[in-house]
Structures are given as C-alpha cells and as structure tokens.
UniProtKB/TrEMBL annotation:
Belongs to the LysR transcriptional regulatory family. This is Nodulation protein D 2. Residues 7-64 form the HTH lysR-type domain. GO terms for molecular function: DNA binding; DNA-binding transcription factor activity.
Length: 303
C-alpha cells in the first residue's frame, strides 16, 4: 500500500491537466503554474509511479499505456474528493448564481428548453444554462458538461457515466400526402430506398437508424442532411424526400399535421430520450437539483 502521507495529491491534478490538454504548456495554463513547475512535478510523478507517463511529440505529449490505465482511476478519485468537499455547501436554487452546461439533442430541445426556462424563472432566477449541440464533440467538452440529454445513453468513459431513461416515443416516417409512394405499405426496403432528408448525427448524437438498417443489409439514400430539425417539415412538404420524427413532435409543430405519418418499419428502434451524467459529481447538491429539474420536466411531458 502507498503511504499517502508521502504522496503529493496535487501531482494527480497536474497529471489530469496534462492528459486533458495534451501539452505541458496547456496544463500549466489550465492550473496556473509555470511550464517549468509542471515539468518538475511530472518528473516527481514519474519516479513515484515508476513510469515515463508521457512522451514528447511534435504536437505536445502522448500518454503511455500506463498513463491511460491510470487516467480513469485518477479522474474518478479526484471527482469523489471534489464532491465530498462540495457537499459541505448547500445549493439554494433561489439564491444560487451558477452556470450549468448541457448538451441537448436537437429533437429534445423543443420539449425541454421552454419548460426549463419557465421553471428557472420562478425557482432559480440566478441560474444560467449554456446549451451545447452535439455538433461539438462530446469528447472535447465532457469534462465541463454537467449533463447530456440525448437519444442514446452516453458512451464516453462508460465506467463514469450514469444514464436515466426520460421518455420513449414511437418513430414515424414523414412524407407529403401526395407523395408518389404515399399509398405503398412502408417496409424497411421501401424506407431505405426512398430519398431522405436527415438530421445530422452531430445534432442527435446517435446512428441507431443506420445501425438497424445495416443489420438488414440496407442503407438509406441520403439526399440531404441538415443541422436542425426545424428545417425538415418544410423540405418534406415541398419535395419527394422523406424524414423521421418522434410522434410527440406533432403536438409541438403544426406543420407535421399536413404530412402523412407511417410507423417506422424497424420495430427495435424507438426514440429513447436519455439523461446522462458523470457519477463523480452526482452527489453534489447543484447537480442533484439539476437532475431532479430535468426529470420533473420530462414527467410533465409524459403526462
């Protein structure tokens, strides 16, 4: 067993910063030390852990296999320490001045954000939200994202991620009512054959439809890919392109009522909206409040 009295835990903070930034200079900037001080700290850590930990490259530093193995455990340990300390402080929503960062899938934003804004206005007027799309790589922002609301559970560092099912909904295939194939039964083969307008993967955070088709030896014909759901109904109404949507969107977007909707012929696929968060911070009072708020909003939606 390591004698922690002889181990400087600050070295682990420096290790985490080097892993996150990929350079000595970047780590120094993040934690407020000089590059020289970070280099000296890394030298001490190499001796203590008996590994080189990082190799210098033209782009910065590259972690060794041992450093990658250690990274998850160090992240988890520092997260638990941070949470244990922060639990001493109460989170009072009506008095709080705090910014939460969330990634929200495009389909979900119409359900969540108006209700979230309404609740904040009453319950936590000093709290702000920075809403990020999935067009920003989840890997690049996971260390500063409080929660994700997405169509499939997060796969980032799975040993550190918890998820909760918020809502499951039927998927429907949309086409204009006078589409040339409007009277044909919607089969998986027809669905794959028809030209699609598709919401980009970066907006949804999932490839579940394409994975289900691939399992059947099929592939969609992508005529157009767009960044936002709100462009899709008008495109479908004025062309022979088809699209998919959760049925609940019919209550939010009146344009859909002018389109024909057929059940998606991929029985195993549903719109499953999931809330994902980092287990290292789940006991922190502000995070617990946010988890309850988002869960409550989706309870309202379900009813």
């Amino acid at each position: 067993m390591v004698n922690l009295r002889n181990f400087d835990l600050n070295l682990l903070v420096i290790f985490r910063a080097i892993m996150a930034r990929g350079s000595i200079a970047g780590a120094a900037e993040e934690i407020g030390l000089s590059p020289s001080a970070v280099s000296h700290a890394l030298a001490r850590l190499r001796v203590m852990l008996n590994d080189e930990l990082f190799f210098h490259t033209a782009e910065g530093v590259r972690p060794t296999d041992r450093a990658r193995e250690l990274s998850a455990d160090i992240e988890r340990g520092l997260g638990f320490i941070s949470t244990a300390i922060s639990l001493q402080h109460q989170f009072v929503p009506s008095e709080a001045k705090r910014v939460f960062t969330m990634q929200v899938a495009d389909y979900v934003s119409g359900f969540l954000l108006p209700r979230l804004a309404e609740r904040l206005q009453v319950e936590a007027p000093g709290v702000s939200f920075d809403i990020l799309p999935f067009s920003i790589s989840p890997e690049s922002v996971w260390d500063r994202v409080d929660m994700q609301v997405r169509l499939t559970p997060g796969r980032l560092q799975p040993e550190m991620v918890r998820s909760q099912r918020l809502l499951a909904d039927e998927i429907v295939v949309l086409m204009r009512r006078d589409h040339p194939r409007a009277n044909d039964p919607m089969t998986a083969e027809l669905y794959a054959e028809l030209p699609h307008v598709k919401l980009s993967q970066s907006a949804t955070g999932t490839t579940v439809i394409d994975d289900a088709l691939a399992a059947r030896g099929l592939e969609r014909h992508m005529a157009m890919t767009v960044a936002s759901w709100f462009e899709i109904p008008d495109i479908v109404a004025k062309s022979d392109l088809i699209a998919i949507a959760p049925r609940r969107l019919f209550s939010l977007d009146p344009r859909l009522r002018n389109l024909k909707a057929s059940p998606l012929p991929l029985e195993e696929v549903v719109f499953s909206f999931d809330l994902c968060w980092d287990l290292r911070t789940e006991r922190e009072p502000g995070q617990k409040w946010l988890l309850k708020v988002v869960s409550d909003v989706f309870k309202e939606i379900r009813t």
